[in-house]
Design goal:
By secondary structure, the protein is an alpha+beta fold. Helices cover 26% and strands 36% of the residues. The N and C termini lie far apart (32 Å).
């Protein structure tokens, strides 16, 4: 799938997701642990921040928020074997953090009513939207430093 089309699907889905959240409440908000249960503060990142995971980067997702302990993201596709390492990159800030070890935490389908629709039919390249979250596992000192700098220099605000 061309990168521009993938970005378009993410952005249009985000628009419809926000509309649905405003009118019906959010599935993801119902599943979020409280701030007291989190070991690390989460931060929102710019729209051009992505995660690549799975065998040979087979899953590409848009990062929703990140912390020193993990991240959450949304992606298009089916639940799959996500592997054990991921890459974080930002197209806007020319940032790349590779081979980050992780453990999956959650992965679930986002309600179909918030998926991007075109002319009453699902767009052929916009399949099921899912939300995943991972916990970082045994980061090296260098990876921790790079992640800390990414959050410090590129986070837009603390996530709710």
């Amino acid at each position: 799938m061309p990168f521009s089309l993938l970005t378009s699907c993410f952005n249009k889905t985000l628009f419809h997701t926000k509309q649905a959240k405003a009118s019906e409440g959010s599935i993801t908000e119902q599943r979020k642990p409280s701030a007291e249960q989190r070991a690390h503060k989460r931060f929102e990142v710019p729209m051009g921040s992505f995660v690549s995971l799975g065998s040979k980067g087979s899953v590409l997702g848009q990062i929703l928020d990140v912390s020193m302990g993990g991240l959450s993201f949304r992606y298009i596709g089916d639940e799959s074997d996500n592997g054990s390492h991921l890459d974080i990159f930002s197209t806007e800030h020319h940032f790349h953090l590779g081979k980050v070890p992780f453990k999956p935490v959650k992965d679930f389908e986002i309600d179909n009513q918030v998926l991007y629709k075109m002319g009453g039919k699902a767009h052929p390249h916009c399949r099921t939207m899912r939300r995943g979250s991972v916990k970082f596992h045994k980061l090296s000192r260098k990876q921790k430093s790079q992640l800390k700098n990414f959050i410090k220099n590129h986070a837009t605000r603390e996530a709710l």
